[in-house]
Amino acid sequence: LALAPYLGSLCAASGDAFLYHDYCIIGAGPSGLQAAYFLQRAGRDYVVFERSHAPGSFFALYPRHRKLISINKCYTGKSNSEFNLRHDWNSLLSHDRRLLFRRYSRDFFPNADTMVRYLEDFASLLKLRVQYNTAIVHVTLERDRQAWNGHYFLLTDQDRQNYKCSSLLVATGTWVPNVVNFPGSEYVEGYETVSINPEDFAGQTVLILGRGNSAFETAENILGVTNFIHMVSRSRVRLSWATHYVGDLRAINNGLLDTYQLKSLDGLLEGDLEDLAIVKDKKGKLHITLRFYLENRNTSAGIDSITLPQDELDNFATRAPYDRVIRCLGWKFDFSIYNRSLRLMTGKGNKKKYPQIKPSYESKGTRGLFVIGTASHSVDFRKSAGGFIHGFRYTTRAVHRLLENRHHGVPWPSTVYPITQLTNSIIKRVNEASGLYQMFSVLADIILLRENATAFEYLEEYPVGVLAELEVQTGRKAPNGLFVVIMEYGRNFSGADKDVFYYNRAVGEAQHAWQSNFLHPVIYYYNRLPTEHEMRLRPPDWPLPRPDAIHHIVEDFLTDWTAPNAHILPLRRFLENCLSTDLRNFFAESCFLFAFTRQKLPPFCQQGYVRMQGLVGSERLRRHAVEAGLLEDYTITDFLGNRPSDSHEGSQDHLLRDHAIPVHPLQHLVTAKDE
Predict the structure, then answer these.
(1) What's a GO biological-process term for it (predicted)?
(2) Same domain, residue pair 423 and 567
């Protein structure tokens, strides 16, 4: 009854009672601020709602032991800012050079307090429109045919203030602790509240429930003061260097693996937590048993009347009692504030902690509701970096570009180049692009071919999961075929059970590039845009359907794909085979010869030589070409005709002084060497 007046006020609220914005963002964490930045730069009407008094409230508490596991590599040996973002996992994208994380910390694994300060500066320096101390407690829909998506989103905060928006971006992350209920679970301490003072655990025996980074982080903190630590989880330990997934166990936290394998009392066990039970004895010790031992028994009668596993199996692994049991099972998305009308559903299987969304990051149940940031990780869970700052800063930008096209008619940014620049464009991107590198197998560069393959249009970092919808989502047309440039690991190289340090684990020769294991560029070629049906039927673990042609650029130890023979030449020949054209660069002399000996000039000659474009030749450039075997070594008399022989030396000196070769005027247009 007490709720009736409140619910009635919601139902009776008139349109004038709502504060309207085109875009509403819930949450001022990293993804919420990143989305706000792009909307502000585009001049859109938006607001960010943050329940706390400052942005990044999650990082004010977590990780509990304050050390982030996102790397902050300040030195790479390069000054290219885009390349350096490949190894900066904390910075958000912006035009302001002051907002690079390395200006806030030099630590390779920074302190979480630094992240809080960074996010505060990001919001204040960029003057983002964040409304603090505003907790959204209810979200529902209002049908309206005039709205962008056929409905408005109605939001209500803790003070019963109502808001209306046309598009909703959910950036709340996953912050509700995962809890497993079993008999005796009331004796379990949560990661979110357990003491972080190691002295509180001195001389104690501890059981940790969980097997992720929070569990190992907790163990690492008390490893040196406890009697021993046991860790129980339903799955085996997954090492990030084996799975190539940054959310799995990182080396910075895996000290317990040493003490376990070197038999220093600590240990790891596998088991379903829902099958466990905890019984507390009179001394306050916690005994681990199995749920079925407690069925139809009165647990209040005392531990002496309860059968424990060691009563039947005297070497039961967890027969020793524990002083403390700590739950470190991660977090899940908060569905509680969303009305059923939004049809925001939980994921399936191991993705049930996330909401169900499309590869475009839009809710499967409600048009116009986008999930960004950590909560959007269902798109690439255990595959790429979409659940972390260095991944979702790019997927958030992709969502913004999709919205710009849908609601404001602004097509996906692109650049048009002549076809002669195709090889160079790809090589530049695979060596510099941070979005492709971090969001491997998820974001890709799309190259749309123009008619007769005379030019191409380059789109950067498009979500490959919606490739079939490219024309609708981007406002760009793809009638003449396309290339897709993506980064991938080897098909069978990643997994918890994989030995990633075996001999001959890397490939070095271009002819074996398809067997590359480490992250490397892959180029897919399609004669036409794949259909949604083809996307659904793509092979398992393939990011894309089977192409008409595919090319792997061989993996490189330095991740530097600029070797002329190993990287560039095979790529160029692949592109030539797909396009049935010659993509080489030629000297003007060669173009001059082709004009008399071929029916069709190569594109480089058509777009350069014939249009009087190129570099004026010099004797030094010509001599370099001759020594490299790229031009024939014509004698100077070939150009001087019937002049007397005694004038040869003086004429040659004159030519060298003039730095020009006296040939046909068109042949002054000398360009880069033939490849």
Answers:
(1) ERAD pathway
(2) yes
**Cα–Cα distance, 463 to 359 (Å, whole number):** 7
- The answer to whether the CB of 355 falls within 8 A of the CB of 363 is yes
How far, in Å, CA of 217 to CA of 225, rounded?
A: 15
Residues 192 and 174: their CA atoms lie apart, in Å, by: 13
Residues 460 and 526 grouped into a single domain: yes
667: confidence class by pLDDT, cuts 50, 70, 90: very low
Range of lowest pLDDT (295-304, 405-414, 448-457): 295-304
Do residues 276 and 188 lie in contact, with contact meaning Cβ atoms separated by under 8 Å?
no
Please report whether residue 8 resides in a domain.
no
Q: Buried b vs exposed e over 105-140: b needs ≥16 C-beta within 10 Å?
A: beeeebbbebbbbbbebbbeebebebbeebebebbb
Whole-angstrom Cα distance, residue 217 to residue 249? 10
pLDDT tens by residue, 72-110: 999 999 999 999 999 999 999 999 999 999 999 999 999
Q: Is the peptide bond before 63 cis (omega within 30 degrees of 0)?
A: yes
How far is Cα 488 from Cα 552, in angstroms, rounded to an integer? 9
What totals of helices (H) and strands (E) does the chain contain, helices first? 21, 24
Is 180 within the bounds of a domain?
no
Domain boundary among 279, 308, 329: 329
Evaluate if pTM is beyond 0.85: yes
Q: What angle do CA 459, 464, 470 make, to 5 degrees?
A: 60
366: alpha, beta or left, given left = phi > 0 and alpha = psi -120 to 50?
beta
| 138 and 127 within one domain | yes
* AA letter at 200: D
Label each residue of 189-201 as H, E or C.
EECCCCCCCHHHH
d(CA 585, CA 9): 72
Q: Tell me how far apart the alpha carbons of residues 167 and 661 are, in angstroms, rounded to a whole number.
A: 65
Residues 194 and 50 in one domain: no
How many domains, the chain? 4
Q: Which residues constitute the domain of residue 451?
A: 414-579
3-state secondary structure of 98: helix
In a domain, 213, yes or no: yes
pLDDT digits (tens, 9 = 90+) for 342-386: 999 999 988 999 999 999 999 999 999 999 999 999 999 999 999
Angle between helices 30-41 and 112-125 (to 10 degrees): 20
| Residue reference for tokens 């209306």 | 164
Whole-angstrom distance, CA of residue 389 vs CA of residue 401: 18
Q: How many Å apart are CA 189 and CA 329, to the nearest integer?
A: 11
Domain membership of residue 671 (yes or no) is no
Spatial neighbors of 622 by CB under 8 A, at least 6 apart, are 631, 661, 670
Q: How far apart are alpha carbons 354 and 463 in whole angstroms?
A: 19
Are 203 and 245 members of one domain? yes
Q: Alpha-carbon distance 583 to 675, whole Å?
A: 9
| Through-space distance between the first and last CA atoms of the chain, rounded to whole angstroms | 81
The answer to whether 155 and 163 have CB atoms below 8 angstroms apart is yes
